[in-house]
Task: structure prediction
Amino acid sequence: MKITIVGGGSYCWTPTFFRDIICTEGLQGSEIVLDDINKKHLDDLHQCCKAILRQFGKTREFKLSVTTDLPTALRRADYVILTITTGGYDAMENDLKIPYKYGIWQPVGDTVGPGGISRALRNIPVVVGLAKAMERYCPNAWVLNITNPMSTLTRCIGRETGIRCIGLCHELYGTLATLQRLLGCDNWRTDLDCISVGVNHMPWIIKLGCNGQDAFPLLRKALAEGRMPPNAKGPGAVLDKKLLGSNQVKFALFKAFNALPAAADRHLVEFFPYFCTEKTRKGAAVGVALTTIEERRETHTPAWKKFVADVTHGRKLMKTQISPESTSRVMAALAGLSEWKDIINIPNVGQVPGIDKGVVVETLGIIGRDHVYGLPVGDVPPGVLTQIQRHATNQEMTVQAAVTGDRGMVLQVMLNDPLCGSIRDGRLMEKLMDEMLRANKKWLPQFFGK
Result:
């Protein structure tokens, strides 16, 4: 089995994915290829992964190589893990700082809003190019997409090529872990059962069970009383104010929609224009902080690089257990080891009624030998369905605009986007669009003809 990590020079993702692969039953003996356009990053991660193999005593069990040549990386691959960011921090800086001037604040800027739209426009041509290369070198391979914006990138692969792709995101599981604490249960994986539906970074739990009991009334009671429900261990404990403070947005939306958004608040606020405003002190009043480019450059990346160096030189060891990221277990299931249930982003073939076929939706699904199946969600509450439809349609248009270089369609996408709608002078929308396209011109040739 050949597993290629495109973006294998990622200090953030590669050590985790690599450890998970070599520790997952069914993936033993695989050839693992790290591919990246940055040779220095690639060399650093190569040494780190060799150290991980030594730590686990698996140096002879796996074949590890690195390359900057994409055809070499893809040739005869069975699985391609995609973790890239076209333009890096320089482009992300434009995604965040230009909208600031127009009064639009984005905690992340990677999915919707002007930053998410801009990021999609840059990444889609690159990802389509990768998928077309896969049609030549590994036409039967699966893409496991980790890159954002997940919905649009997963969609463009299936729309423009015959390559099969699954988008994987951990946000739902973070919310279920929070619910475990709020509801006082022991283990969300065994005690909680849910039906989740949406688009990436805006999935909604529309039904929730806790040990066979309808959990929404329990959750409402816990939130109203500020106390966890009593359980076998004794009376309910007072809810953690920090936990409540960092989930104010999802609980406000739960109260309004009678369905619970299942992503971190820092992602959720980018789908709505009401939370990161002047009056909320750019989100601070609802527990949301803006992650700046400076923070990413000066704090996040140096920490990741230090960890990689520490693992490489034996100053730190990788944890021995597989991470919550499900990428390796999805590959093992696709290889036929056993079925695996997970939250997945795949095209809608009817699992979500009321959403056009082909649109990428996020639901629970079953992965088995060389196939994936999205579980039907049943009727979706009208208010929730309207939110999903709006963003799903906009993401379809984003893919079309990126593939064709249609400026008019980009403008329509921005006019339809709720966060962009916080601009109160419509004449500024085209100005914002032009400024963002110009700032990222070297990554957006499709929008700039002769």
User: Anything to note?
Assistant: The chain has a mean pLDDT of 94. The two ends are 45 Å apart (CA to CA). Residues 8 and 34 are 4 Å apart (CA to CA).
